[in-house]
Design a protein that fits this description.
- The complex is a heterodimer of chains A (about 775) and B (about 180).
- Chain A is mainly α.
- Chain A contains 33 helices and 2 strands.
- Chain A has helices spanning about 1-25, 30-45, 45-50, 75-100, 105-125, 130-150, 155-185, 190-195, 200-220, 225-230, 235-245, 250-260, 265-285, 290-310, 315-345, 360, 365-375, 385-395, 400-430, 445-460, 465-475, 495-510, 515-520, 530-550, 555-580, 590-610, 615-635, 635-660, 670-695, 700-710, 720-725, 730-750, 770-775, and strands spanning about 55-65, 70-75.
- In chain A, strands 1-2 form a two-stranded antiparallel sheet.
- In chain A, strand 1 and strand 2 form a beta hairpin.
- Chain B is mainly alpha-helical.
- Chain B is about 60% helix and about 5% strand.
- Classes of the chains: A mainly alpha (about 775), B mainly alpha (about 180).
- Chains A and B meet through helix 28, helix 31, helix 32 and helix 33 of A and helix 3, helix 4, helix 5 and helix 6 of B.
Chain lengths: ~775, ~180
């Protein structure tokens, strides 16, 4: 039960937060933090067991008749991600207590959705079923949408939220197709079984490409990346948690999860090339931002690309480096976001051109930022350094893409070092002529921030711990030669020399960043992903509008013609083909039928000839009553009763409407009249054919005898009603539901004001004005 | 004593309470009298159809239509406010209550008899009074009645909306005059 309990605790905490926020204000975040903190503690307590190779599994039975359950599994990779999700989650929620202290309303939504997100993310990494994984995946997307858009008052936030939603659910849907295809190919939806015995073949390749699309979209890889920087309009804790530490890792997690099974063509080339491109693009863009949050966002894009390269490369050392970098990135990037959040909250801006003197006013904050930046640039003694060394080593060793990828990584690191320096300079440099805005930094903001940064340092000083965690994932690959382990000092290796090269290059690039901006102005030929996304979204909307304008012409007769011709032609043709025209037709059984049918035909003829609307309506009703008469003659009193009542109701409704219309109906132009006549004849022909075919069957159905036999025992001898309320009660249930929905829909469309309001009631006296109003 | 009682013998209630709000040109005495006389019987017939459904012609659908037609009669004779007096419940409430009843009946079957929409019926011999059959599916039928009534009320209110003096202001804000 434990794994499911962890997830349930998050759901419960989310509900509690939503309910209690109005009473306790931002203190609900402290309550919210309990769920991920407890989960983190539980995971830590069981980490030794999991890392020793004993996975913890649990099946949540769901619909057993359909053989559906939600299997959960805690293995090395899930443990790593789970610790990150819950640990960073707890820290961010604690931090939110201070960040949202002045916020008036809407805290229930933010706190509730944040905890819900933590739970969904945990479910995502624990899920051992492709479809359960997909559900959790989309749940995180939904949380992200709600948290970016928040209360929906800011247009910018709405746009960003919709952009993130469209890109991530769009690619997520593609992924769903891939997952279904993959599950069908493998014959199982269990991820563990799938990875053990991966399917092969053309369809599998297609499935993998589809799955990768989803992973790349979720993790903001080129060309899907623009949603992530746009999402920075969200509150800083949201950016730190969803858009740096957790949600965007979902794509890299999926790649890491499936790479051991599919690390070959086309998986590895796609992942590695998209990752490298993203790393270079993100790093380059980060260098030209003036907003600290956007700078960090492009840095995240770049780091996610880096993670993709490592986790998708399919070698043991690369996987080890990837797992290490997962830890490192979650720690240092959320720290930096929280630092920017403190600056934002206390100084009121994140624009680096408006900041000055921050390091004098908040030396503690500066220290924390430097610590995190050491990790980001890959300097010792930090987890970032361990990961960077391992990453370089992974591609110094023989690896797919080899030297080319290594060169790309080196350039990427140069950019990383440069934008790290740029961030520090932007946040903490003194700018003459700019007024100081920051007063002081409260300890409640600083403590969770510092805890995350120190985590990166402490873990590096005990590299064995991280190594143990990371090997939990890397063990999925075979090692060639002596397995690589994380250490602070490996000796004078090529990796170390390359690392030094990147530091020098990065510093030089930072100093020469003015020229970088100049270079960027020449790169206009590169297709702009943002504009392309906007254009395609607009094209879809334009197409939809065009389609609507063409099909929804707003003319009731046109709709009727379309609907009725469809009814007549499609089932009519099927019936003609299947049943044919019944030949054995008796004209009537009793003379009464002939009389009624003659009257019916006369009424219908009258409707066609009538010019006055009211006369036509009365004649239509007359036809209906004659049909009821036919039912009586046939011996179906229930049917006749219903027919008479409905006919009366229809007539009265018609009268209510028709009296407001002109008395005479203008005849339509001749071509239209001809068309309508053809359609009317077709429908009439179809109805005749259907009636003849139905009444030509004289053999009672198998169910019929049973109905008559059982009806007295099930309530009463009136078999018609027993069928409605007993034998086919489910049909009735469906029908009345449709009725209720249709009534609600029609009334809501027609009535502008609320239809739940009270009906007008009579009063004792009426004024003359009301008389006048009523007569209008 | 009798002198004092005299003023109260003037009818306190008019035939149809709301019809007085209508302009004279919209009133028809015969229709008002007929409606006043017939409407209670119409409701009774509707209830009879509901109860008799399993044995004779009738059933929930027919019952609802009969009761609904009674409402239409009130609406035609006394205007929208008369409809409000006859059926003061919002149609949405009727639809919701009906759906709840029907769905609740279906689920109750699962809980009590492990079968969706399960029903039970009792035959009671009441000695001199005769023989009575009670079926749980009557609950289902009542739900159907409420839904159909809600639908009819919705339609009636919708078609009568423009004459709806009570909410004329709200209606005019969203529509061109």
């Amino acid at each position: 039960m434990p794994l499911a309990l962890l997830l349930g605790a998050h759901g419960l905490a989310a509900l509690l937060c939503a309910a209690l926020a109005s009473r306790f204000g931002s203190r609900v975040f402290l309550l919210a933090a309990l769920a991920p903190a407890a989960a983190c503690g539980w995971l830590l307590a069981h980490s030794a067991e999991v890392l020793a190779g004993r996975e913890i599994r649990q099946d949540l039975p769901w619909a057993q008749a359909l053989d559906l359950s939600v299997p959960l599994r805690l293995d090395g990779l899930a443990l790593l991600l789970g610790l990150l999700v819950t640990g960073v989650g707890a820290a961010v929620l604690l931090y939110s207590y201070r960040y949202f202290a002045d916020r008036e309303g809407g805290l229930g939504l933010v706190a509730g959705v944040l905890v819900l997100f933590a739970g969904a993310m945990l479910a995502l990494v624990l899920a051992d079923h492709l479809l359960a994984l997909y559900v959790a995946w989309e749940l995180t997307t939904l949380c992200s949408f709600l948290l970016i858009g928040e209360d929906g008052h800011k247009p910018e936030a709405r746009r960003a939220a919709v952009r993130a939603l469209l890109v991530t659910t769009g690619t997520g849907f593609v992924m769903l197709l891939g997952l279904l295809l993959l599950g069908a190919q493998a014959g199982t939806y269990r991820v563990s079984a799938l990875v053990e015995q991966p399917p092969h073949g053309g369809l599998t390749t297609a499935a993998l490409v589809l799955v990768l699309t989803g992973a790349l979209g979720k993790s903001a890889q080129v060309p899907f990346h623009p949603w992530l920087p746009a999402a920075m309009v969200a509150a800083t804790p949201v950016s730190a948690y969803l858009h740096a530490a957790a949600m965007v890792k979902a794509g890299t997690y999926l790649v890491a999860r499936l790479s051991p099974a599919f690390a070959e063509v086309p998986w590895t080339p796609i992942v590695v090339s998209a990752g490298l491109a993203t790393m270079l693009l993100g790093g380059g863009r980060a260098l030209v931002q003036t907003d600290l949050k956007r700078l960090l966002a492009f840095g995240t894009v770049a780091q996610l690309g880096f993670l993709m390269v490592l986790l998708g490369a399919g070698t043991r050392t690369a996987a080890l480096a990837g797992a290490t970098m997962l830890v490192a990135h979650a720690l240092f990037k959320s720290t930096l976001f929280l630092v920017v959040g403190v600056i934002d909250r206390e100084a009121g801006t994140t624009d680096l051109r408006e900041l000055t003197g921050v390091r004098h006013r908040a030396p503690g904050l500066a220290l924390v930022a430097v610590l995190a930046c050491l990790s980001m640039a890959g300097l010792p003694p930090t987890v970032g350094y361990l990961g960077k060394e391992a990453a370089l080593e992974a591609f110094v060793e023989p690896a797919p893409g080899g030297t080319l990828v290594l060169a790309g990584l080196v350039v990427g690191f140069v950019l990383t070092v440069a934008y790290t320096l740029y961030f520090l300079w932007g946040a903490f440099a003194d700018r003459p002529g700019v007024t100081e805005r920051l007063e002081r930094v409260p300890a409640t903001s600083l403590a969770p921030t510092a805890a995350l940064a120190l985590g990166g340092l402490v873990l590096a000083l005990a590299p064995g711990v991280v190594d143990h965690l990371a090997v939990g994932h890397a063990a999925a690959y075979e090692s060639h030669g002596a397995p690589y382990h994380l250490k602070l000092w490996h000796g004078l290796t090529p990796a170390l020399l390359l690392s030094l090269l990147t530091l020098a290059g990065g510093t030089a690039l930072f100093l020469a960043r003015g020229h970088v901006s100049a270079v960027r102005t020449y790169s206009r030929w590169v297709p702009d992903a943002l504009a392309t996304q906007d254009r395609s979204a607009e094209a879809v909307l334009r197409g939809a509008r065009l389609l609507t304008a063409r099909t929804q012409v707003g003319s009731l007769p046109t709709y009727l013609v379309v609907i009725l011709s469809a009814v007549a032609v499609v089932p009519g043709a099927a019936m003609l083909a299947g049943v044919g025209v019944p030949t054995d037709v008796r004209l009537w059984d009793r003379p009464g039928q002939a009389v009624l049918a003659g009257a019916l035909a006369a009424a219908v003829g009258g409707v066609i000839a009538a010019r006055r609307r009211l006369v036509a309506v009365l004649l239509v009703s007359g036809a209906g009553y004659f049909v009821a008469g036919l039912f009586v003659v046939h011996g179906a009193p229930d049917l006749a009763l219903a027919q008479v009542l409905v006919e009366t109701l229809t007539l009265l409704m018609f009268v209510l409407v028709v009296r407001r219309m002109p008395a005479d109906a203008a005849p339509p132009p001749v071509p239209l009249r001809a068309l309508r006549s053809v359609v009317a004849l077709l429908v009439g022909g179809f109805a005749t054919l259907a009636t003849l075919a139905a009444s030509a069957r004289h053999r009672p159905s198998a169910a019929e005898a049973g109905y008559f036999r059982e009806a007295p025992h099930a309530g009463g001898p009136n078999v018609v009603n027993v069928v409605i309320t007993e034998f086919r009660a489910l049909d009735t249930l469906g029908e009345v539901t449709v009725l209720a929905v249709a009534a609600t829909g029609v009334a809501s469309l027609v009535l502008v004001s609320s239809r739940m309001g009270r009906a007008p009631r009579p009063r004792d006296r009426y004024t003359d004005e009301e008389h006048a109003e009523a007569s209008r | 004593m009798s002198d004092k009682r005299l003023p109260t013998s003037v009818p306190q209630r008019r035939l149809l309470a709301a019809a007085e709000g209508l302009p004279a040109s919209h009133r028809a005495l015969l229709l008002e009298v007929l409606t006043r006389v017939v409407h209670p019987s119409v409701v009774l017939v509707g209830i009879y159809l509901l109860l008799a459904g399993l044995h004779r012609t009738g059933g929930g659908f027919a019952a609802a239509l009969v009761i609904g037609l009674g409402l239409v009669l009130r609406r035609l004779a006394g205007g929208p406010q008369e409809l409000g007096a006859a059926a003061p419940v919002p149609p949405g409430f009727l639809l919701g209550a009906g759906l709840t009843l029907v769905a609740g009946y279906a689920v109750a079957g699962v809980v009590l008899a492990d079968e969706l929409l399960a029903s039970h019926h009792w035959s009671l011999h009441l000695g001199r009074l005769g023989h009575l059959e009670v079926t749980t599916s009557l609950v289902f039928e009542v739900g159907v009645v409420l839904i159909v009534l809600g639908l009819m009320l919705d339609v009636l209110r919708t078609f009568g909306a423009e004459e709806d003096t009570g909410s004329a202001e709200e209606a005019s804000t969203g529509r061109a005059p």
